[in-house]
Amino acid sequence: MEELQSALQDWGLAVSNVPEKGRCLVTIKDLYPGEVIISQEPYICVPNNSATESRCDGCFASGNLKKCSACQVVWYCGSTCQKSEWKLHRLECDALSKLDKDRRKSVTPSIRLMVKLYLWRKLQSEKTISATATDNYNLVEELVAHMKDIDEEQLVLYAKMANLVNLILQWPDINIKEIAENFSKLACNAHTICDSELRPLGTGLYPVVSIINHSCLPNAVLVFEGRLAVVRAVQHIPRGAEVMISYIETAGSTMTRQKSLKQQYFFTCTCPCCIKVQDDIRESAILEGYRCKYDRCNGFLLRDSDDKGFVCQQCGLLRSKEEVKKIAAEIRATSDKASKSLSSGNLQEAISMHKMIEKLQQKLFHPFSISLMQTRDKLLKMLMELKDWRDALSYCKLTIPVYQRVYPEFHPLLGLQYYTSGKLEWLLGKTEDAIKSLTKAVHILRITHGTNTLFVKELIMKLEEARAEASYKLSSKDDE
Question: Which of 85, 323, 346, 413 is a good FRET partner for 465, with 20 to 30 A between their CA atoms?
Answer without folding.
Answer: 413
